[in-house]
C-alpha cells in the first residue's frame, strides 16, 4: 500500500517552477569590456632638442587597475609651436620651451611634461674684425 505524504507534491511543483524560471544561480555574465578608468603616459617627463623626437607610450587601465589592451588613444600638445605629437605618441621638438603632451582614451587622460631645448652649440668661429 502506498502512503501519501502531505506537502511533497507542492514542494516538487515549487522546485520545478524555480528551475524553469530562466534565472541562473551564478553571477550575471559580463556586459562588455571594462571602461577605461585611467591613462598613464610614460615617461612622465621628457627633454627633446629642437628638430629631434622622443617616443611616449600610453597605458590604459580599468577601475581595478587591470591593464586594458586594444583601446584607441588620441594624442595632443598644449603648445604645438613648441612640440608636436603624432598619433603614435612621437613628440617632435619645434622650438625651445615647455609643452604638456596629453593622451586621451574614452574620456580619460594622462599627461607628460615636455621640455624642448635648443641644440647645443657644436662649433664657435671667431672672425677677425
Report on the structure:
The chain has 1 helix and 10 strands, in the order αββββββββββ. The longest helix has 12 residues, at 8-19. The protein is mainly beta and 129 residues long. It starts with 7 loop residues before the first helix and ends in a 12-residue tail after the last strand. 9% of the residues lie in helices and 39% in strands. The model is unreliable at 10-18 (pLDDT under 50).
Topology:
Elements (H helix, E strand, L loop, with lengths): L7 H12 L18 E5 L2 E5 L3 E3 L1 E5 L5 E2 L5 E4 L5 E3 L4 E4 L3 E9 L2 E10 L12
Parallel strand pairs: 2-10
Antiparallel strand pairs: 1-4, 3-8, 4-5, 6-9, 7-8, 9-10
Strand order in the sheet with the most strands: 2-10-9-6
Which percent range describes the beta-strand content? 35-45%
Largest β sheet strand count, sense and barrel closure: 4 strands, mixed
Mean pLDDT across every amino acid position: 86
Percent of residues in helices comes to: under 10%
Count of DSSP E strands? 10
Q: What distance separates the N and C termini?
A: 132 Å
